Amino acid sequence: MFAECHRVLAPGGHMLLAFKVGDQRRHLDQAYGHELSLDVYWMSPDRVADLMSEAGLVLDARMIREPDESEKPRQGRQAFFLTHKPKGSRRDTSG
After folding, report:
1. Hey, is 27 helix, strand or coil?
2. pTM for this one?
3. Which of 92, 95, 67 lies closest to 79, judged by CA?
4. Which of 14, 50, 53, 90 is 20 to 30 A distant from 79 in Cα terms?
Protein backbone atom coordinates (compact mmCIF):
# COMPACT_ATOMS: atom_id res chain seq x y z
CA MET A 1 0.00 0.00 0.00
CA PHE A 2 2.76 2.46 0.88
CA ALA A 3 4.60 1.68 -2.37
CA GLU A 4 1.46 2.79 -4.22
CA CYS A 5 1.25 5.94 -2.10
CA HIS A 6 4.89 6.67 -2.99
CA ARG A 7 4.15 6.06 -6.66
CA VAL A 8 1.22 8.47 -6.90
CA LEU A 9 2.64 11.26 -4.74
CA ALA A 10 4.47 14.00 -6.61
CA PRO A 11 8.07 14.54 -5.49
CA GLY A 12 7.83 16.70 -2.36
CA GLY A 13 4.16 15.71 -1.93
CA HIS A 14 2.76 15.12 1.56
CA MET A 15 0.45 12.49 3.01
CA LEU A 16 -1.38 12.46 6.34
CA LEU A 17 -2.20 9.01 7.69
CA ALA A 18 -4.42 8.20 10.68
CA PHE A 19 -4.83 4.70 12.09
CA LYS A 20 -5.75 2.76 15.21
CA VAL A 21 -2.85 1.79 17.49
CA GLY A 22 -2.63 -1.82 18.61
CA ASP A 23 -2.32 -5.37 17.35
CA GLN A 24 -5.78 -6.61 16.50
CA ARG A 25 -8.46 -6.89 13.85
CA ARG A 26 -12.04 -5.86 14.56
CA HIS A 27 -14.92 -6.72 12.27
CA LEU A 28 -17.75 -4.22 12.01
CA ASP A 29 -21.21 -5.11 10.71
CA GLN A 30 -22.60 -1.65 11.34
CA ALA A 31 -20.93 1.75 11.59
CA TYR A 32 -21.62 5.37 10.76
CA GLY A 33 -25.35 4.61 10.63
CA HIS A 34 -25.00 1.96 7.91
CA GLU A 35 -24.84 -1.80 7.66
CA LEU A 36 -21.50 -2.90 6.26
CA SER A 37 -18.82 -5.55 6.38
CA LEU A 38 -15.51 -3.94 7.35
CA ASP A 39 -12.36 -5.28 8.95
CA VAL A 40 -10.45 -2.64 10.92
CA TYR A 41 -6.80 -3.44 11.52
CA TRP A 42 -5.03 -1.83 14.48
CA MET A 43 -1.28 -1.53 13.89
CA SER A 44 1.90 -0.74 15.79
CA PRO A 45 3.18 2.80 15.02
CA ASP A 46 6.74 1.45 14.77
CA ARG A 47 5.64 -1.19 12.22
CA VAL A 48 3.77 1.40 10.13
CA ALA A 49 6.77 3.75 10.25
CA ASP A 50 9.03 0.90 9.05
CA LEU A 51 6.67 0.04 6.18
CA MET A 52 6.49 3.68 5.10
CA SER A 53 10.28 4.00 5.20
CA GLU A 54 10.73 0.80 3.18
CA ALA A 55 8.46 2.32 0.51
CA GLY A 56 10.63 5.45 0.33
CA LEU A 57 8.44 7.82 2.33
CA VAL A 58 9.93 10.13 4.97
CA LEU A 59 8.17 10.49 8.33
CA ASP A 60 8.02 14.18 9.35
CA ALA A 61 5.73 14.08 12.39
CA ARG A 62 4.17 11.41 14.56
CA MET A 63 1.46 11.86 17.19
CA ILE A 64 -0.33 9.27 19.32
CA ARG A 65 -3.70 10.39 20.68
CA GLU A 66 -5.29 8.82 23.77
CA PRO A 67 -9.11 8.57 23.85
CA ASP A 68 -10.77 11.17 26.06
CA GLU A 69 -13.54 10.63 28.62
CA SER A 70 -16.34 11.15 26.07
CA GLU A 71 -15.15 8.23 23.94
CA LYS A 72 -15.78 4.60 24.65
CA PRO A 73 -12.70 2.84 26.08
CA ARG A 74 -12.77 0.38 23.18
CA GLN A 75 -12.05 3.23 20.77
CA GLY A 76 -8.39 2.92 21.68
CA ARG A 77 -5.46 5.10 20.79
CA GLN A 78 -5.04 6.74 17.39
CA ALA A 79 -1.83 7.52 15.53
CA PHE A 80 -1.36 10.39 13.09
CA PHE A 81 1.67 10.44 10.78
CA LEU A 82 2.69 13.24 8.45
CA THR A 83 4.99 11.97 5.71
CA HIS A 84 6.35 13.10 2.38
CA LYS A 85 7.94 11.79 -0.78
CA PRO A 86 11.45 13.20 -1.13
CA LYS A 87 11.86 15.80 -3.90
CA GLY A 88 14.64 13.79 -5.54
CA SER A 89 12.32 10.78 -6.00
CA ARG A 90 11.31 9.90 -9.51
CA ARG A 91 7.58 9.56 -10.01
CA ASP A 92 6.78 6.09 -11.33
CA THR A 93 4.66 6.37 -14.46
CA SER A 94 4.34 2.65 -15.15
CA GLY A 95 0.93 1.38 -14.95
Report:
1. strand
2. 0.80
3. 67
4. 90
